UniProtKB/TrEMBL annotation:
The chain crosses the membrane at residues 42-63, 69-90. Pfam families: Acetyltransf_1 (PF00583). Signal peptide: none annotated. This is N-acetyltransferase domain-containing protein. The keyword Transmembrane applies. Keywords: Membrane, Transferase, Transmembrane, Transmembrane helix. Residues 85-252 form the N-acetyltransferase domain. One of its GO terms (molecular function) is N-acetyltransferase activity. The keyword Endoplasmic reticulum does not apply. It comes from Paramarasmius palmivorus.
Amino acid sequence: MSPPDARIRLYQVEDEKTVRFAIGKSNLEGLATANKEAATHWLTLSIWLVLSLAMVEYMQWWPKPEQGLLGYLGPIPAFGAMAVPFIALFDWLNRPQFENLVQEALRGPDIPDMLQYYSRSPASGLWLLEYNGHPVGICALDASLDSEKVALSTTSERPDVSSKGTSQTAVIRHFFIDEPYRKVDIQKDLLHHAIRHAFSADSKVQMIKMTCSSLTYYVTKGLKDEGFTLERETSSLGVYGWKTGIWTLDKDRFKP
């Protein structure tokens, strides 16, 4: 039996649905992490414990040793009942922000014609990571003259994709790896490939930037491993204000 085949290839037109889905998923998956982190936050657990004990006291569900082993299970329904509102509340509060991130990403200037958009600079690229013939990750790096443009596109206002050239600052617009493949750090190969291409394809590129949330642990870890440093925090996400920041890598710090 031949070993599994993994390869990195350039984007093709028929990959559009796959890439759009990956872009949406990469921005929405932080919702599950935010809900989990909020539910296990020390403040949440403290409030949950106090309310649960108050319910046990009100309902007089304290353990009753005289009933044997089952008598010690009396308080459990109170703890379970108090957990449900927290789970629903956190999802209700967190979801709008993450859904907005998805909509912003899918209305970005690169989305209407990704093939042409990432062909404007030799240092740009949109790559798919395949494993056994199935796409498991994407990386989109924009080194065009308007690489730092974040204005949204509409059907009546399409971005100008005719301008060609290379900026000194390249931007990783999208990055995503399917969760089962993150355990083996396969994301490092894709990220390193994109960075090496940007710096070697055009000498004008002197810096690479990426905006990343602290909720996407595998991405921030990959950035740190490649030498990226946090330039500044730009916004916060979720009920507990997890930070989103801009990470940068200078060319002289990159190790090919």
